[in-house]
């Protein structure tokens, strides 16, 4: 791949984003509450959180499509808080990408360069490089209506990259696509980013997408940042019950939140183990979800493999004892824990 299609090695590749004390209200409603955030230069960072948490509002403020009531945004070390979008060197892609319907794929990608009056030969070469980068070389002459949804989003990314932005902002770029295409594009985005190290911030409400794709995840909820860290840090050391529940399945055992695969099933009583009755064994492929009921009425569930179930000779109605395999990483009763949702 010709690296000049992207930013590898260029000074701009090292532009990060700094958000300082950004606050945004809509009437009485506080959408962002004093957000401080540093997005690493050259990284692929996910802004992850539940619907309505403030992800898009923050992205729009970074893009220059909205402004904070107070606080500042820096891009590549320069104050960009009140700069218009076209002056902050950002490229963006949204869920429903508005392509020019009457222009071919190549002309759509060329658009930003043409309005900047770049020489014709340069535009031609750069569009060819970008189409290769997003694997759309054969589709250069097609109209957007002749592309699939996934191909259209790749075209959108090529168009955003064409003008060599310092940062790329993606708002649920694959949100409107079906699960299989989403998965393909996720892998593709990861590989693209490995080639073109442009600082990228992408919004998603899908924890699997964030865990699979991002170098760093920013968990945001109710206008506040809950935690920032690598996928492994967030998964293994969540700061609180909210982050733990949001990043994967959880269940409550003896009042403590645990991952259902981090529970030991014992066939006799042991210190620290909770006595339960197995109420249901649900097979999902190779995995078995064992639903149980404790004497206090709580209903912890355990994720097992078929082999484990066979080894334990587990059956519905059996009495067993459950014990967490790992200690909870945060103090019990940490703030704002939603009730675990059954998987
Ligand atoms: N222009 C606006 N006027 C009033 N309220 C708004 C406006 N824009 C956003 N909000 C509110 O701010 C909150 C945060 O919205 P935002 O779109 O940032 O959330 P989100 O995390 O991106 O959610 P989703 O994943 O559903 O897109 C929501 O409660 C939303 O209703």
From TrEMBL:
Keywords, ordered alphabetically: ATP-binding, Cell membrane, Membrane, Nucleotide-binding, Sulfate transport, Translocase, Transport
Enzyme class, broadest EC rank: translocase
Domain ABC transporter: 17-247
Record GO terms (molecular function): ABC-type quaternary ammonium compound transporting activity; ABC-type sulfate transporter activity; ATP binding; ATP hydrolysis activity
EC identifiers of the protein: 7.6.2.9
Database matches in InterPro entries: AAA+_ATPase, ABC_SmlMolc_Importer, ABC_transporter-like_ATP-bd, ABC_transporter-like_CS, Mo/tungstate-bd_C_term_dom, P-loop_NTPase, Sulph_transpt1, TOBE-like
PANTHER family according to UniProt: SPERMIDINE/PUTRESCINE IMPORT ATP-BINDING PROTEIN POTA, SPERMIDINE_PUTRESCINE IMPORT ATP-BINDING PROTEIN POTA
Name the record gives this protein: ABC-type quaternary amine transporter
Organism, scientific name: Cellulomonas persica
């Amino acid at each position: 791949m010709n690296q000049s299609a992207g930013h590898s090695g260029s000074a701009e590749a090292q532009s990060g984003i700094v958000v300082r004390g950004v606050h945004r209200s809509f009437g009485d409603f506080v959408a962002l509450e004093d957000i401080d955030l540093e997005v690493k230069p050259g990284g692929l960072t996910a802004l992850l959180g539940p619907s309505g948490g403030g992800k898009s509002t923050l992205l729009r403020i970074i893009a220059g499509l909205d402004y904070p009531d107070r606080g500042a945004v820096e891009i590549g070390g320069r104050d960009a808080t009140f700069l218009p979008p076209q002056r902050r060197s950002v490229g963006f892609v949204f869920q429903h990408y508005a392509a020019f319907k009457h222009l071919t794929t190549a002309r759509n990608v060329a658009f930003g360069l043409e309005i900047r009056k770049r020489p014709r030969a340069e535009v031609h070469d750069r569009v060819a490089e970008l189409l290769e980068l997003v694997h759309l070389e054969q589709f250069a002459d097609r109209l957007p209506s002749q592309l699939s949804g996934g191909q259209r989003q790749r075209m959108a990314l090529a168009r955003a990259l064409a003008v060599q932005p310092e940062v790329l902002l993606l708002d649920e770029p694959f949100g409107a696509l079906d699960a299989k295409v989403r998965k393909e594009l996720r892998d593709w985005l990861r590989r693209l980013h490995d080639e073109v190290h442009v600082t990228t911030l992408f919004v998603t409400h899908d924890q699997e997408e964030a865990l699979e794709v991002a170098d760093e995840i920013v968990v945001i909820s109710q206008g506040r940042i809950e935690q920032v860290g690598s996928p492994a840090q967030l998964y293994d050391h969540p700061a609180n019950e909210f982050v733990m529940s949001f990043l994967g399945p959880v269940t409550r055992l003896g009042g403590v939140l645990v991952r259902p695969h981090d529970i030991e099933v014992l066939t006799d009583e042991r210190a620290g183990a909770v006595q339960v009755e197995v109420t249901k064994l649900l097979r999902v492929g190779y995995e078995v979800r064992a639903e149980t009921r404790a004497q206090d009425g709580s209903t912890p569930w355990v994720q097992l493999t078929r082999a484990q179930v066979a080894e334990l000779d587990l059956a519905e109605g059996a009495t067993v004892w459950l014990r967490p395999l790992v200690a909870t990483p945060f103090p019990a009763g940490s703030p704002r824990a939603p009730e675990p949702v059954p998987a």
